[in-house]
Amino acid sequence: MPLALCASSHSPLIGLNDPAPDIVNEVYEQLDAAKAFVEAFDPELVVVFGPDHYNGFLYDVMPSFCVGAAAASVGDYGLPSGPLEVDRAAAYAITRHALDSGVDVALSEAMQVDHGFVQPLLFLFGSADRIPSLVPVFVNCVAEPLGPASRARLLGEAVGRVLGESGKRVLIVGSGGLSHDPPVPRLADAAPEVAARLTHGRNPTAQQRRERESRTVAAAGAFAAGSTDFHDLNPEWDSLVLDAFESGDITAFDEKPNDWFIGEGGHSAHEVRTWIAAYAALSTQGSYEMTSRYYRPIKEWFAGFAVTTAMQKEVVAR
Predict the structure, then answer these.
(1) Main-chain dihedrals φ then ψ at residue 274, nearest 5 degrees
(2) How would you class 10 by CB atoms within 10 Å of its CB: exposed for 0-12, middle for 13-18, buried for 19 or more?
(3) Distance from C-alpha of 197 to C-alpha of 215, rounded to nearest angstrom
(4) Active-site residue (options: 180, 231, 267, 270)
(5) Mean pLDDT, residues 91-112
(6) Does 115 qualify as catalytic in the annotation?
(7) Domain range summary for the chain, segments of one domain joined by +
(8) What's the confidence (pLDDT) of residue 314?
(9) How does pLDDT run across 114-166, given as a tens digit for each residue?
(10) CA–CA dist 103, 115 (Å, integer)
(11) Could you confirm whether 180 is annotated as catalytic?
């Protein structure tokens, strides 16, 4: 059965710290086009490669990858909270094949996911109750130490092989990046109280979450106003990344050291690992075509914001 893909940036700042209305409208036109692409494909299963921002995965146990056999949205930044419809059998099949392929993945029967997973699904399906059965696949993109980016490719290839044999129309979603350096804390230089939150801070109170989110909104406002406290967006690097995926060169980042991603795109540029995994999964079923590509650097959202769709070439040709 065919596979299709939508890979996009996410930003919890959408609606909270927006750029000019014409830019917002432009982005939503692109997201609506991606939504129409998904509706035409009519997926029976959705597999989402997404990051976490110390909401569901903390330093008490920090896997490189984790497959969710059951999951719930934490409801950060005003997004819907509560259980998601997860295909448990598909999650176990993905986990078994990844392990058989030499990719060490964890399995969760109680995964918590944040805006990195939920926001793109709402873009593509309109509301939480319209999201099809899914499998969330967590990719660690912020909590050092990180493995090499090539491991994300190997994960994606293992997942893609399972999906190709599933007998279902499967939409693959990659969520994150591109150049991207929001104020996500790092354990190595965190104050003691922050380090404690990064390790044990799951399920914050509503007040704690509001305070944390308000700091992010304030930082985005400062960044858009010209603050140099954060790594600037890098459209040239973002274009290089998009060119690699459009050309089908899924090994383009295999030899790049982790410091390269940070130096070029900021600390959270590691979120392109979700794109690497997603495009690698699609590539396992033959050549693909990127059917749409949009990009704009948006400081108000702390992101080189991109939206792409892709599909197997033989399906496009029909």
Answers:
(1) -70, -35
(2) buried
(3) 15
(4) 180
(5) 97
(6) yes
(7) 3-316
(8) 72
(9) 999 999 999 999 999 999 999 999 999 999 999 999 999 999 999 999 999 99
(10) 26
(11) yes
Q: Which of 307, 316, 310 is nearest to 283 (CA)?
A: 310
CATH class, 3-316 region: alpha beta
Options 97, 115, 231, 270, the catalytic residue: 115
pLDDT digits (tens, 9 = 90+) for 28-72: 999 999 999 999 999 999 999 999 999 999 999 999 999 999 999
* Region for residue 190 given its phi and psi (left: phi exceeds 0; alpha: psi -120 to 50; beta: otherwise): beta
DSSP β-ladder status, 288-298 and 71-74: unpaired
Rounded distance, CA 33 to CA 29, Å?
6
